[in-house]
Amino acid sequence: MPIVNRIADFHDEMTKVRRDLHQQPELMFDVPLTVQRIVKELKSYGIDDITTGVGKSGIVAVIEGKTNKSGKTVGLRADMDALPLQETSGKPYASTVAGVMHACGHDGHTTMLLAAAKYLQESRNFDGKVVLIFQPAEEGGGGAREMINDGLISRWGIDEVYGMHNWPELDLGTFAICKGALMASADRILIDVEGKGGHAAKPHQGVDTVVVMAAIIQAVQTLVSRNTDPQQALVVSLCHVKAGFTDNVLPQTGMIEGTVRTLDPDVRDMAERRLKEVVEGTAAVYGAHATLHYKRDYPVTVNHDEPTERAAAIARSIVGDDRVDDTFVPSMGAEDFSFMLEACPGAFIFVGNGHSAPLHHPDYDFNDEVIPIGASYWIKTVEAALPA
Fold first, then answer.
1. Would residue 13 show up in a list of annotated catalytic residues for this protein?
2. How confident is the model at residue 270 (pLDDT cuts 50, 70, 90)?
3. Residues 55, 165 share a domain
4. 138 is catalytic
5. Residue 265, CA distances (Å) to 140, 177, 184, 237, 344 in order
6. Which of 33, 108, 187, 284 is most buried, by the most CB atoms less than 10 A from its CB?
7. Could you tell me the residue range of the domain that residue 128 belongs to?
């Protein structure tokens, strides 16, 4: 496997960094220890153009090539926040923070970018600038959006931007990518339902909010089965239902929360419109009232054609032609790197983590054998996009 030899030389060093980060996970934008460690590492490599507090708590560091005749700048992004889960992996370097763990591998993503940064600062074998982006709050906070709103693309003049995520469903030493939609949009829905409370022994005198909610839960699935082209993707999952407080009182109100996922903006528009109609109409049939609160959150992650072709070629140069899937079937998971791809050309790629516990699982752990593979991808991405 032709990984960059120099990266292999400090694999053990970077494994220690990754495991240190794993032991001190932090959530959303509140990542001071993580930021402190990343900045310390960058400075130790000789990188001094470092800006913190971008998009609340993001880090942007710049490495200049030996020349800058091209005037071109490439951005490389890693996320650095953890998840509110209690780790059960049993690893000696498991999280020391109760109820918080790196269950999505962002500790590994950060480490791979740090490893690449160390090499790129040493070699500077490219023509242009590299912007290293360490982003907070990927897990639901929209940290990418905050960094963009804080001028990430314009302040640093980024021409292309690239992201990478480990994928436990892929073998170690493999990559997967595709042009166009790679990951779904993710919208949040809250449905407030109000019936007429009363005594459970006299339901005819009230409007049973629980029955109304059950009808709504069933009805909204017709958006998938009867309103969406079978060759297009839509997921509506209602995951949090709450009503009442005892066993003999019809509750006056109830609440349903969930998510809507799709790979197509038109389907997204349809889902929002029809959800409102179905929710309100179903409640009205039962004599109740319902209000849909629809929050558009992460957009579809859409890879640009030319950067995707380049990314796939780079991956093949590292692991071989037969270990890169460039026709990956899109995932209905979501990723806030989508905001960066809306603002700038680029591509997002998956790197195999081996067949471990799945992402967002309390037994999950990033595979440290991925570090030299991912770091080599970052290095060769820079050298291909900014040839010396």
1. no
2. very high
3. yes
4. yes
5. 20, 20, 10, 18, 18
6. 108
7. 5-183+300-385
